[in-house]
């Protein structure tokens, strides 16, 4: 084959990550625990392709995401395709397609990768992996409670304590209703259109300066109303106004129920909005309480009307998406990620070529007892083989040489502690499990 | 929010699949078993993004795949991006980037999804999931043996018997060497370029008619040599010629070693080529022995020179990729896929609203004992709740009502057998595990 002179680059595509075994170990730590929690709550796994028809995102995902941040292209057959920026529209599409056959309520989870075209920065990458957890078919407060409880249980399963995070809550109907009430009390009115735009503006508030926000607010609501909103739309006023709104009672009931179910770290945040246009009720965010880094870790909410995208009747739906990038940062900052250890338990070091077949036979028998075993088949010096095992963070090495073949006694080396045990073959598996369990 | 009139379609993008829980169950069956096998052989998991710089595939992946079958696009920052059509270049890139730090030999596996723009048809979809297993850093026959043994063990772990499949082997150096020898014995020569092109042509042989193949062969080699190849390049001749070629001894040694290690169903297939340009040594394919459907299920080979793509020295590398689509077809045809059962063990049926809190407490305690439990929070009639559990293929239902709350005795219903047990709370978990293990 003629050699090509041009060299390919060794870096991955911009803004995405390579997962070497020690990186994959952290991913597995996060998502194995997550999977364990949600399956214990009766959530069942689904999955779908990363490619979706572009129309799926046109109507209900936020404008910013669709117009500025999605990966779109036209395929060789002239179809408009999008690399999914989020999973919720996909789950909704799948349920809509089988709405009659599926037995509601549905508890579904998935761990997809999703893409956004963003400038890569701390906590934001172009690709991240995301646990998605959704409960379909239950309109009541119990569904909202379950989803928030799941988010809480996830954090606890990662090893976080109640002081490490707070769960902020708000409601997408309460926002315009309290606003309308505030306007009314001041002798003014807010149109539906203004309400929708105000929610979008509030969502971007953290990303702009106070003066810029005030200007945009004035542009949207006029001088008088924007003045009222800026001065009076405060947490205190809103908490008072909520009592009198249509959706207020339900929201206050949610807060009470969560408290009575023993979640100590919940908090109403009247400024919480969340980006997606499709939310229709409760919204929440799990926030890091670290004073240096008080970031949102993940969140979700209720989106009963997303099914209208497919011409369907609304369906009660509530859920959240938890991305790996921010959770990994959080876990690192709290030192909650365990030290890397290889998924291979034992490295079989082969002292001389004549011992290879014996080593491979031994390896097969250990595998049948559940031990994960790699055999060194390089024929290198014993010391080099041991170094390889240690460098890979494999917990044990076992030497097979002439002496071992004769006596049937093996030296099991613990590569972390340097401790060494002489064992018969039948005791090797138990000795390994004793240390690793 | 104003309603949009246009409706999004409910189907996935063309040629890809939605995985509902019962579909995901089969995926998990395939890849959990695969993961179990390869980890027991000391393979460690890596992963990477599905997006790669396009240049990664330009040089060494087959022309057909790159020019006709890849998904390419230009991103918003004007970078040429490809949705990976295979995983091997990615693994090679990652190892090349850390060649000095990584402890060889490396045993790596991954379960990525890969994309090809093909006309969707039986056994071929635009997206499939693929176990990739590779051994880097060992040039000898032992590495080839291990990779083929892994392929064999995978098939056995899926429940296939030795009669269900055969492993066909060939060698990418033996092909041109035997061809050159044949030409020489007939007083002719084959150029390097002709050799490369002949391998590519042989790869497409199955997709064309005999006359078309003969024409293309004549075009490539001329009348005289193509005549010799057509008439004499038969399995019998090749097996005789191999003995005299440079690479022949190594290949025959591989066949012998595999036989001596107890793999009964191997076979030399002189016509086996496999598509990728990067193979440099042993190649193999696991083939279904069903007379109605004698298809290749998966395969791989040695590709020591792929590292040259990055300007690196060659590195010994051998591996395979096993896609889910064909394996699933195979398993279905052999009735090897187990019946679907939900990952949720118990469905808690709540007889009346007053029992909900008790049910949720009970659910929490069962979860702590390892049982996966969904609580029906819909407030529907008891019969409807039971129907939901059965429709979801959840193995057990447990009713919580006034009577149960009073007596502390619960009815555990096995929804498949309709058997019912009356149990104290403390015996529920064991009763569930007894049936499910």
Give an overview of the whole structure.
The structure is a homodimer of 437-residue chains. The first copy, chain A, has 437 residues and is of the alpha+beta class. Chain A has helices at 21-40, 55-58, 63-69, 88-97, 141-157, 174-185, 192-203, 210-232, 235-242, 248-260, 324-333, 356-368, 382-391, 402-407, 425-436; strands at 44-45, 51-53, 71-74, 80-83, 106-110, 113-115, 127-136, 165-171, 266-268, 282-288, 296-302, 317-323, 346-350, 373-375, 396-400, 409-414, 420-424. In chain A, the strands form 3 sheets. In chain A, strands 1, 5, 6, 7, 8, 9, 10, 11 and 12 form a 9-stranded mixed sheet that branches. A 5-stranded mixed sheet of chain A has the order 14-13-15-16-17, with helices on both faces. A 3-stranded antiparallel sheet of chain A has the order 2-4-3. Chain A is elongated, with a radius of gyration of 28 Å. Chains A and B meet through helix 1, strand 1, strand 2, helix 2 and helix 4 of A and helix 1, strand 1, strand 2, helix 2 and helix 4 of B.
Fold blueprint:
Two copies of one chain form a homodimer.
Chain A: H1 21-40, E1 44-45, E2 51-53, H2 55-58, H3 63-69, E3 71-74, E4 80-83, H4 88-97, E5 106-110, E6 113-115, E7 127-136, H5 141-157, E8 165-171, H6 174-185, H7 192-203, H8 210-232, H9 235-242, H10 248-260, E9 266-268, E10 282-288, E11 296-302, E12 317-323, H11 324-333, E13 346-350, H12 356-368, E14 373-375, H13 382-391, E15 396-400, H14 402-407, E16 409-414, E17 420-424, H15 425-436
Parallel strand pairs in A: 1-5, 8-9, 13-14, 13-15
Antiparallel strand pairs in A: 2-4, 3-4, 5-7, 6-7, 7-12, 8-10, 10-11, 11-12, 15-16, 16-17
